[in-house]
Structure formats: C-alpha cells, structure tokens
Specification:
Elements lengths: L1 H19 L5 H19 L1 H32 L12 H22 L9 E6 L2 E6 L2 H20 L5 H49 L2
Antiparallel strand pairs: 1-2
Helix pairs in contact: 1-2, 1-6, 3-4, 3-6, 5-6
C-alpha cells in the first residue's frame, strides 16, 4: 500500500513536466493519470477491509461476553489446584451453552463465510457457493463440536462421570480462550492497519510537498 500511494507524487510531477513541454504527448499524460487512478482505487479498498475487521472484532466481543462465565466456572472448580467436578456448575454451563450456541456461536461461525478480505483463507462450500473462510475458523468449528460432544456424552450417561464434567469444563474453557485470542488478533490487525494508513498518508504528504 505504501508503494501504491507513493506513485502518485511521481505521476503528478511527470504530468507537469510533460505539459510544460511544447510537444506534450497525450498518451504519456493518460498513462500517468492511469497510475494515479489505480493507486487511488487500491487505497479506497482499505476502507471496506478495515470495516470488515471492525465488525469481526465486534462479533468476537459478543461471543466472548457470552462465554466469559465459563472461565469463572472453571476457575472456581480448580481453585484447590485440581478439578473438582462438584464445584463446577454444570447446569449453569449447559444453560449458557444452549442460549449462546444459536444466538452467538452459530451466528458467528456462519458470518465467517461472508468475509471478503481473507488473506490466509480456505475455500469451503456454503449455501451461496464457494467462499473463503479464515484458516483459524476450522479450529473454531472443531472446538464448538467438542463442546457439543461433551454434553452429548453426559446425556448418554446422566448425570455424567467426573471425567464427563471435566470434558465439558475444558471444552468450554478452550473455546473461550480461542475466542479471546482471535479477538486480540483482530484488535492488533486494526491497530496495524491504522498505523500503516497513517504512515502512507504522511509519506504521501511529504512526496507532494517535495514535488516528486
């Protein structure tokens, strides 16, 4: 992106020199104008990309808020240094999951297939065709299925063994940590992109002022 915008001052300077000549070549002017147009078009794409990252961060925040009690449940059950299934509120964890899954988790996972600016992505089939999703979204799906499997095991052998309760607790904890990690990554991406934009504009301003 830096190189893209820095081409603009050079194109402007070249056009000025061509027009200052007696026999200015219109084709040369058009070529430099096309360079400027292309640079501005590429820079304009940064806006939608930044907006997409911002929305992803907001969605991750929503999921993180819903899952956050799971970490408190796990901390309470492991306060003695080992996992105590008696102190883990399995009923609350199930209620939270049954509420969060359709309104937050599934909605979040489905939204990943609508992302347009995915650099490190995988192609997957969706109801609307082949789309690209972030590579890390596969881990999100696997962690979600792991939670479902843990609850299913308890339903098969109610009220569940201590190991079954531990599986639920660890699955929810790991999913919550995963969401926090992705939220932190999205936050850093926003910061990095904003810093890059600021740098580009500063360099462009210097280039225009110097008449390059």
């Amino acid at each position: 992106m830096v190189e893209t915008l820095l081409a603009i001052p050079g194109a402007i300077h070249a056009i000025r020199e061509i027009l200052a000549g007696r026999n200015s070549d219109p084709r040369a002017v058009l070529a430099h104008l096309e360079t400027m147009r292309s640079s501005l078009v590429k820079f304009a794409e940064i806006g939608p990309c930044l907006d997409e990252i911002r929305k992803l961060h907001q969605t991750l925040q929503k999921v993180d808020h819903v899952l956050d009690p799971c970490l408190r449940y796990f901390a309470r059950a492991t306060a003695s240094g080992y996992f105590n299934p008696v102190k883990y509120p399995l009923g609350k964890a199930r209620s939270l999951w049954e509420l969060a899954k359709p309104h937050s988790i599934n909605e979040f996972i489905d939204s990943l297939s609508s992302l347009q600016f995915v650099e490190d992505g995988l192609h997957v089939k969706t109801p609307t065709g082949i789309r690209r999703i972030p590579r890390w979204s596969l881990e999100t799906r696997n962690l979600k299925e792991r939670v479902d499997t843990a609850f299913y095991s308890i339903d098969q052998r109610p009220p569940g063994s201590p190991q079954d309760v531990l599986n639920v607790a660890e699955s929810l904890r790991d999913l919550s940590h995963h969401i926090k990690t992705r939220m932190s990554a999205a936050d850093q991406e926003i910061r990095d992109l904003a810093a890059e934009i600021s740098k580009v504009l500063a360099n462009l301003e210097r280039g225009l002022n110097n008449g390059r």
